[in-house]
Design a protein that fits this description.
Oligomer: single chain
Number of strands: 8
Number of helices: 6
Mean pLDDT: 82
Low-confidence stretches: 1-22, 27-43
Radius of gyration: 16 Å
Order of helices and strands: EEEHEEEHEHEHHH
């Protein structure tokens, strides 16, 4: 299943046996979705399995990756992005991010979410827009009782690559290797989201 936008909403279109994707998704090879319930106790200790939703927040593109971490083995369940068109009111874009995020959480039922910690760069307008999008993402997770953890880019690079000042290309290469993906994610935002999920599994 992939998602195509119709009237600025993510609409599912069945194409075959691939896992459903929110926004513009990328389907990992051979995975078929199974419904697994959500639990909030120390699920990793109790079952040896944890389903993690990694999120790279943004107003134009929200990268996401859903992985399962069971007995120190990774399985990629879904990856892709939620995208909003430029030229429309920011309130509408935030609504789209929130609605698609709720749909994504309902679809995959993650146990925990890992999201990039907010930091301010020189472009204050961009930083504010990202902060607003991040807020509705956190709200969607909170409303669905998904535990939230935050990580800085340095922490993610240290966890995934072993070096906090690693280049983007090094992070993408390690994400591909750790998750045994056939191809690297098409968008950096998706790769960053998967790296966040891996970081959370290791922490």
């Amino acid at each position: 299943t992939v998602y195509r936008r119709r009237r600025k909403r993510a609409v599912p279109v069945i194409l075959g046996g691939a896992a459903p994707q929110a926004g513009r998704g990328e389907s990992p090879t051979g995975y078929k979705s199974r419904g697994i319930g959500r639990s909030h106790a120390p699920i990793r200790e109790r079952t040896g399995r944890m389903k993690i939703l990694g999120i790279d927040p943004g107003i134009a593109i929200v990268g996401y990756g859903v992985i399962e971490y069971r007995n120190s083995v990774f399985k990629t369940l879904a990856m892709g992005s939620i995208q909003t068109p430029a030229g429309i009111d920011v309130e509408r874009r935030l609504e789209m991010v929130y609605d698609d995020m709720c749909e994504l959480i309902d679809m995959y039922r993650p146990d925990e979410m890992a999201i990039e910690e907010l930091f301010f760069n020189t472009n204050q307008k961009t930083a504010i827009a990202v902060a607003e999008a991040r807020g509705v993402i956190l709200l969607a997770a909170m409303k669905r009782n998904v535990k939230i953890s935050e990580y800085t880019p340095l922490q993610v690079k240290q966890s995934v690559v072993g070096y906090g000042r690693a280049e983007k290309s090094q992070v993408i290469a390690l994400v591909k290797m750790i998750l045994k993906l056939e191809h690297a994610p098409k968008l950096d935002d998706t790769a960053d989201a998967l790296a966040l999920a891996i970081c959370h599994a290791y922490c």
